[in-house]
Amino acid sequence: MGFVVASAATIRPGLPADWPTIADLLTSSKLPVEGAQECLQHFVVAEEASEVVGCAALEPHGQHALLRSVAVSQQHRRRGLARAMIEHRVDSARRLGLGELHLLTTTASPYFARMGFAAVARSMVPADLDASAEFQGACPASAVLMRLDLRIRAATPRDAEAVAAIYAPIVSSTSISFELDPPSADEMRRRIEATLPALPWLVSVDAHGEVDGYAYASRHRERAAYQWSVDCTAYVREDCRGRGVGRRLYSHLLATLKGLGYHQAFAGIALPNAASVALHTAMGFEPVGTFREVGFKLDAWRDVSWWQCQLQRNEAPLRTPRTIEEAPLSAADIERKANDAVGSPVRARC
Ligand SMILES: CC(C)(COP(=O)(O)OP(=O)(O)OC[C@H]1O[C@@H](n2cnc3c(N)ncnc32)[C@H](O)[C@@H]1OP(=O)(O)O)[C@@H](O)C(=O)NCCC(=O)NCCS
User: Fold this and answer.
1) Which of 31, 93, 109, 223 is 20 to 30 A from 142 via CA?
2) Rounded to the nearest whole angstrom, what is the distance from the C-alpha of residue 247 to the centroid of ligand 1?
3) Are residues 94 and 40 in the same domain?
């Protein structure tokens, strides 16, 4: 079974009969052929008019996997085929329960950065990947190691129920949120849909694909001069707290906001909240001041402490912040359907 992408192309699993074409594609794209035939069952190919025009593979090594062999024939580039195949392989890595995906590239790091991969030092390579042919010489030592965190993805309206379930006990039995009634799943869907075109809303997923936390940004204030400032918040399912989920969500959220061009991130923490103060301190936020008795909930006046994190040090804004829609290949967008893909040049070497 395959799915249709970029009008006439189909993405489907690689078959033994595809090998000669895949080998030609790898050779003409100057990618290593070593070890590729052995992981043919982990390839997908892009097929058009009964011709294989692209390929991409996931090469599992123990608890880790390499994304490799991303190649599109010259005349079919800039049509989103690589992105569709990569998303297919990323989904497959998630279904295998992997927490992260690595790749090596000599020339395509900006392309993969737009897909949410981040460059990491070669010394950070997990031991089981270090033993692979790619690390043992098939790729040049100058190739950049990149990593995608598979536990964080952009929220979709389908996550509304899980998000509402995480939030409900915080509203009903704590003063962490100043809402008085837990919003329904429908209301949460509306909020996700209203946020996402402009600003990031991320979810974290556990090894079973269940949402175990979320974080999002909202406008700090409406007037125009505030447009480079955002407010941030994160909520982690009660049974998953203290395991780094909040930190992972915030790392992605702040990196995405920085990429969009925001200058300052703010957070209001209803006191007391040791975990939230610890998370914001760990992420580089600094205390600004406290609004005294600014809300009344659960029979008491509540203080809110405000925190801020400078995302970048520019003397004047370079431009109006981009929206998530205008930066469709940001980390927050990795889950988009392949059919939405906009063509992108692919010059992957490893
Ligand atoms: C606040 C919250 C999002 C933090 O998420 P988390 O996944 O539990 O936090 P992490 O495990 O990523 O920990 C982040 C940092 O906070 C510290 N921390 C976490 N919980 C803590 C606690 N209860 N007391 C003290 N420190 C704590 C961790 O040690 C870590 O610090 P380090 O990175 O320097 O080691 C989570 O506790 C939560 O959902 N709380 C209820 C909702 C809430 O308060 N949201 C914030 C609204 S302002």
Assistant:
1) 93
2) 7
3) yes
The tens-digit pLDDT sequence of the chain (350 residues) is: 455 555 678 999 999 999 999 999 999 999 999 989 999 999 999 999 999 999 999 999 988 999 999 999 999 998 889 999 999 999 899 888 888 999 999 888 988 887 888 899 999 999 999 988 888 887 888 899 999 989 998 999 999 999 999 999 999 999 999 999 999 999 999 999 999 989 999 999 987 889 999 999 999 999 999 999 999 999 999 999 999 999 999 999 998 999 899 999 999 999 999 999 999 999 999 999 999 999 999 999 999 999 999 999 888 887 899 888 776 443 334 333 332 332 222 222 22
CATH of the domain at 74: 3.40.630.30
Element (H, E) at 252: helix 245-260
Query: Are 123 and 171 in the same domain?
Result: no
Residues 171 and 238 in one domain: yes
3-state SS class at 109? helix
272 C-beta closer than 6 A to ligand 1: no
- Write down the pTM of the prediction: 0.78
What is the spatial distance between Cα 170 and Cα 13, in angstroms, rounded to a whole number? Answer: 44
**Residues contacting residue 316 through CB under 8 Å, at least 6 positions apart:** none
Find out whether the beta carbon of 278 lies less than 6 Å from any atom of ligand 1. yes
Do residues 146 and 187 both lie within one domain? no
144 C-beta closer than 6 A to ligand 1? no
In order, the DSSP letters of 150-163 are TTEEE--GGGHHHH
User: What's the domain range around 75?
Assistant: 3-151+335-340
